[in-house]
């Protein structure tokens, strides 16, 4: 079992190292002739006005929050799903209850108008 | 163990024997073999991507009634190799004010996130990556890494378009992860394990038969996770120029490109593994190389369907996309999960006709209900008119008012 994690560790490091190495090689091969116009922020030819880190719709953040709730609660169900073949019908119904509460949360969020993109 | 039927373990045994005969300790031999395997897989996947890009461009061309790449080599097959050679010698242009660390980290992370998936996928009965017990969870976790790369790229570039693209990525990729994660509970439930090898081994009957609705939801989410048409709002060319990768050049841009195309193929591979039975097929247990071929055929089929969708559907509007996810796919995924759990528990266990038929019937009923709900709720919502009627070529041009708030 330890060998499996060893392979995974080696793979993760190589997956990061191979692209990084390719980038370094390309950086050595490529020409370097920077100038002011070339390095300016691209905005279809316009001069950039103000900071590039603009304010944005709060909706993106709210979706992020809703995602967090759902994803974390769903991940809690994974251990249950692994034990599914061993739990009784009662255990299954309890998981269904858990998901029903989750569905209630979705219904609440829906009614509150969080899911409207306007 | 013969070479023809099962080449890779044959080579591995041969290498182990050779290196042990040189008097190397077995731990070091194992590590060397792991490094070799991982290196072969990562580099192989990236080289394979050049073929994928060619295939996608060629198929896309045929779909849209044009020849596609046809100049370099027979059928333009060396087009991407020429492109890669060119892109290797291109200058890296770093925009002024870019945050160097996230800016440079993003392309590496984007490719690494996709490559990591290959570490746990089983390719045949004897050839598989790391057979960890939490393979599926690893798959989901690594899938999230790609989003981190996109956000890093958007924030690091010091560009409004890139930032908008990154915000859209946050909204879209995170949202579509919700039904995906819920639906992936069903293969885990039917298998009783999160290991990828166990999931494939459990699919004497592919899970697409037992849980077709779950498969459909998963497939849709996968396309959305790829950020491809009809869900290509992240890099909507006509709105955001290119989205998060706008300020990248040279190989850094090339890596986003590679990550995108490899991600599409990897998604098809994941779908084939989780829902179409992976390497399972007639004779695959005895002759493992056949399993590899089966997996390749299934993956190619799924990949082709994805391409067909990409090249024939228009882009969703952002509110339509969000509605489809939160008001249709997520509730449907929750109900599919609940009904599958209960029905599978009530029906007698094992591979009998009653269980398969029962699950199939439940799925069909669910699909009909979902279809009805969809058609009654998701009526065509006309786009709100923001401006008055536009005069056509009358008077002099007016400057458009500046918009600072993203939408």
Number of helices of chain B: 15
Mean pLDDT of chain B: 82
Reported by name, the CATH topology of chain A is: Methane Monooxygenase Hydroxylase, Chain G, domain 1
Domain count of chain B: the total is: 2
- In angstroms, what is the radius of gyration of chain A? 25 Å
Helix content of chain A: 55-70%
Q: Total number of β-strand segments of chain A?
A: 0
Q: What is the straight-line distance between the termini of chain B? A: 60 Å
- Uncertain segments of chain A are none
Ranges of chain B with pLDDT <50 over ≥5 residues?
Answer: none
Q: Kindly name the structural category of chain B.
A: mainly alpha
Give the overall pLDDT of chain A as a whole number.
82
- The CATH architecture of chain A is Up-down Bundle
CATH structural class of chain A: Mainly Alpha
Approximate shape of chain B: globular
The coarse overall form of chain A would be flat
Task: Describe what this molecule looks like in 3D.
The complex is a heterodimer of chains A (118) and B (407). Chain A is an all-alpha fold and 118 residues long. Chain A has a single domain (2-111), classed as NADH:ubiquinone/plastoquinone oxidoreductase, chain 3 (Methane Monooxygenase Hydroxylase, Chain G, domain 1), CATH 1.20.58. Chain A has helices at 2-29, 36-39, 58-82, 89-111. The N and C termini of chain A lie far apart (51 Å). By secondary structure, chain B is mainly α. In chain B, 66% of the residues lie in helices and 0% in strands. In chain B, helix 7 (185-191) packs parallel to helix 14 (318-346), helix 10 (212-226) runs antiparallel to helix 12 (250-275) and helix 12 packs across helix 13 (288-312). Chains A and B meet through helix 1, helix 3 and helix 4 of A and helix 2, helix 4, helix 5, helix 6 and helix 7 of B.
